[in-house]
Amino acid sequence: MSSVESRGPRGADSRGTDSPRVNKRKAILDAAFTVFARRGYAQAGVQEIADEAGVAKPTVYNHLTDKETLFRYAVEASADVLLAELLAAVEHLRDRADDQDPRAALTELAVRLARICCGERASALRRLTYAEASHFTDLADGVQERTARRPLAALADRLARLSLSGQLRPCDPEQAAGHFLALLTGPLELQSRRGTRPVPDAGLRATAEAAVDVFLRAYAYGGEP
Amino acid sequence: MSSVESRGPRGADSRGTDSPRVNKRKAILDAAFTVFARRGYAQAGVQEIADEAGVAKPTVYNHLTDKETLFRYAVEASADVLLAELLAAVEHLRDRADDQDPRAALTELAVRLARICCGERASALRRLTYAEASHFTDLADGVQERTARRPLAALADRLARLSLSGQLRPCDPEQAAGHFLALLTGPLELQSRRGTRPVPDAGLRATAEAAVDVFLRAYAYGGEP
Amino acid sequence: MSSVESRGPRGADSRGTDSPRVNKRKAILDAAFTVFARRGYAQAGVQEIADEAGVAKPTVYNHLTDKETLFRYAVEASADVLLAELLAAVEHLRDRADDQDPRAALTELAVRLARICCGERASALRRLTYAEASHFTDLADGVQERTARRPLAALADRLARLSLSGQLRPCDPEQAAGHFLALLTGPLELQSRRGTRPVPDAGLRATAEAAVDVFLRAYAYGGEP
Amino acid sequence: MSSVESRGPRGADSRGTDSPRVNKRKAILDAAFTVFARRGYAQAGVQEIADEAGVAKPTVYNHLTDKETLFRYAVEASADVLLAELLAAVEHLRDRADDQDPRAALTELAVRLARICCGERASALRRLTYAEASHFTDLADGVQERTARRPLAALADRLARLSLSGQLRPCDPEQAAGHFLALLTGPLELQSRRGTRPVPDAGLRATAEAAVDVFLRAYAYGGEP
DNA sequence: TATGAATGAGACTTCATTCAT
DNA sequence: GATGAATGAAGTCTCATTCAT
Question: Of B122, B160, C42, D49, which residue is most buried, by most CB within 10 angstroms?
């Protein structure tokens, strides 16, 4: 879970961008996300976070003023990572823009997305932001922006190209993207019981294929077989 | 806000069995759901619940042992109500089983469902169960059962009939129902910002129509226009 | 130090004015004053106060919202007691209004006042209000009102009578009272090292007599011997 | 507010040769006094003192071991300054030793003293030492020595001269000095509300004149008009 | 039965103080 | 010598829960 390579205090780091200060901050944010994910916002104790990060409690407060601040930054950092993963997955579509039949490419995309959405991070993020949606409205909005709206927009771009190139029928690309993602993630939430259970790779693939199948029936030209 | 049909104090209900004891219990559960929905599980105080219910704190403990128990019963009661509403909406389909074209009926269903899903109760329930999914696994499962799986199964029944009667192509009705619901609720979550913002009736209807349109393109016979 | 007769919980009290609730509150306020006097405002811990009062920490918070509130009420209660003592001492002068020579009466008064001013309560109150004069301005003002201004006014009344009856020369009675008290308490502060050391009864009496002597030399008619 | 000539620990530097080391120490002590005066001992933070002095926190610890040590030195330095001011005021009397009537000289002295006693430094010092009288007994004693006993002794010297030269009646000069100061400062404490409010110059002068008047009535030969 | 009052445990936060640079 | 960063200890306050009426 904890992802940051916290080299010792004065760490001579490989790529040179991290100061030890920044490293410790990242370690704390990572630990915080882990603990918040485990317990929820209110039940998580700052002590537990400090322990998880391997620092003393006041150190946490030195780097991040508040429990609230801690939460915000931890969640946002995680959302950023997720956003990057999602965008990367969508970008793969670009490389396969000239396949004659988009089914294979879309299926690959769907599987990638499914894996991300069922992952630890995405599940935790979903739980946390649903939970605190009313108290941290802006935060929840920001996360939805990064984990849903922007990936959706990126996908819409790709679909618009497919539409232009005649591989999909003319349509509102935003809406199409929304439907694509809904067809994929909706059933996944059911299978994973809201991220509570792991989804076996087979089920994941089956869901992805079914989603793509319906999507293409609705959005491909003649209404495919 | 107050939801569970709290008939007046000594309420003359259909079958007439309510003792004042039972009434007070309902009042407490209602208050509990309201407060939990407002604050989340951990942030909700038993005192606040007692105040909302108009009783003293120990009275709450007299009726429901624990804060945890209180939560479970409150959530389950609310899930039961939601289940009833959802099933009722699905049942309406039955009455229109012999329309030649299912579009109108499905659209009506979609709109009904959308209204329910965007309502206070459904949003609150979603927030609460996502939040506590890891701590109250069984509870979360039970809620998903009632707010998703069973309505889905009921819808699958209807779709199966439509398929048999030739209004839909042959398909796995469970899967079709899953897709139908996903196409509807996925975009709604985006619009309502996870239930944080109200969705205007127009947007709600547009979303429903788009969902039905895609659904029919994919599941109707020839691939409709 | 602790003065409240905390009869058991349901205590059937002699004079009937105290509810058990009120009793516990008094016990807490007494304990608070004791501890604040011992440690000062900031160094005093609520835990220590609770222990001194023989209750649990939250009970303290149940009765008195804050540490600050606790402080205010404790100090004010103590100031009230002190005010009563001081006024009582001044009232004694009334009974001796027709002595021909006021020296004896004034000396008795001076001794009484000196005893009070050197007592535990007065010293503690002086320390506490000096210390927090800048943070609790209003409180400090209220205390000065009760421990200085009002006793001074009462004394001024008495002196005005003496002046009218020809035992003192015509003068501004407020100013005379101020001088009387200053002549008494100024030297006492020096002797008691700001209330840090006990003042033996002899020194106390000597100081009182010297104060009265100077006072009469300045305020009696012919300038006494 | 600014500085105290506390030459460094061992510093017997004859005149003005402050090393930078000594300068920084002075800056810190000054800042400390300012902050302690503002907040009180316990509420004052070492960080705030460091900020006020324009140095980093560890630097404070480098120069002055402890918060306690810091307090002691800061307070003592300030008391030294005050002592010097008070003694200087008293010394002025010497120059007017041969006035026939001491009233003018004493009044001038009283006004000078009143100004000092109502000043920032004196008020702060009074608050701080009253507050911590029980915890820093020795410190409080030292301060009283410098701000009360020694000025009083110096004044007693002067009064003894006046007595010898027949301008005052025979008396115990220490006691007379005590009464003089009490008549002056007692009423001032009332007017300034324990140093909380500024005293206008007129009130200050009136108080001084009243004090001298009473003093002379009591201590001058025939009992003046 | 319903309640006012009491409590034990634990949460967040701050501060004086010390390393390592 | 001066500083940024880290820490152990402690403090205020809140909360779920239980007596005694």
Answer: D49
Asked if the Cβ of residue D46 lies within 7 A of any atom of strand E, the reply is yes
For the stretch B25-30, contacts whose Cβ atoms lie closer than 8 Å and that sit 24 or more positions apart, written own/partner, are B25/B63, B25/B64, B27/B53, B27/B54, B27/B55, B28/B53, B28/B55, B28/B59, B28/B60, B28/B63, B28/B64, B28/B70, B29/B4, B29/B64, B29/B70, B29/B73, B29/B74, B29/B77, B30/B2, B30/B3, B30/B4, B30/B6, B30/B74
Instruction: For residue B55, say whether its CB is under 7 Å from any atom of strand E.
Output: yes
Contacts of B186 in chain A (CB under 8 A): 178-179, 181-183, 185-186
Given a contact cutoff of 8 angstroms between Cβ atoms, the answer to whether A86 and A147 are in contact is: yes
- Evaluated on CA atoms C104, C106, C107, C111, the torsion sign reads positive
Give the whole-angstrom CA distance, residue A208 versus residue B175. Answer: 12
pLDDT in tens, C59-96: 999 999 999 999 999 999 999 999 999 999 999 888 88
Tens of pLDDT, residues C10-59: 334 444 456 767 789 999 999 999 999 999 999 999 999 999 999 999 99
For an interface test with D, the pick among C123, C135, C209, C217 (most D C-beta atoms closer than 10 Å) comes out as C217
Q: How far apart are CA A181 and CA D158, in angstroms?
A: 97
Within 8 A of B213 by CB-CB distance, chain A residues are: 218
Given a cut of 50, is residue B12 above it in pLDDT?
Answer: no
Residues contacting C220, CB < 8 A, separation 6+: C102, C167, C168, C169
Dist CA A144 CA A116 (whole Å): 15
Nearest nucleotide by C1' from B45 CA?
Answer: F15
Q: Which residues contact B48 (CB under 8 A, 6 or more apart)?
A: B35, B39
**Nucleotides in chain F with any atom closer than 7 Å to protein CB:** 1-21
pLDDT at residue D9 in the model: 43
Long-range contacts of A62-71 (CB under 8 A, 24+ apart): A63/A24, A63/A25, A63/A28, A64/A25, A64/A28, A64/A29, A64/A32, A68/A136, A70/A28, A70/A29, A70/A32, A70/A46, A71/A32, A71/A36, A71/A41, A71/A132, A71/A136, A71/A139
User: What CA–CA distance (Å, rounded) separates A184 from D96?
Assistant: 102
- The first and second tokens of residue C171, run together, are 């003068």
Token readout for C41 is 């405002």
- Asked if B176 and B106 touch (Cβ cutoff 8 Å), the reply is no
Contact partners, residue B203, CB within 8 Å, separation at least 6:
B191
Q: Give the residue among D68, C110, A132, A215 at the shortest CA–CA distance from B218.
A: A215
Q: Tokens for D138?
A: 């020795």
How many Å lie between the alpha carbon of D213 and the closest alpha carbon of chain C? 8
Contact C76, C142 (CB under 8 A): yes
CB spacing of A42 vs B38 below 8 angstroms: no
DSSP D41-96: TTT--HHHHHHHHTS-HHHHHHHSS-HHHHHHHHHHHHHHHHHHHHHHHHHHHHHT
Q: C198 and C117 in contact (C-beta within 8 Å)? A: no
Of D38, D40, D178, the CB nearest to C42: D40
> Under 8 Å CB-to-CB from A144, ≥6 apart: which residues?
A129, B190, B193, B194
The pTM for the full model equals 0.86
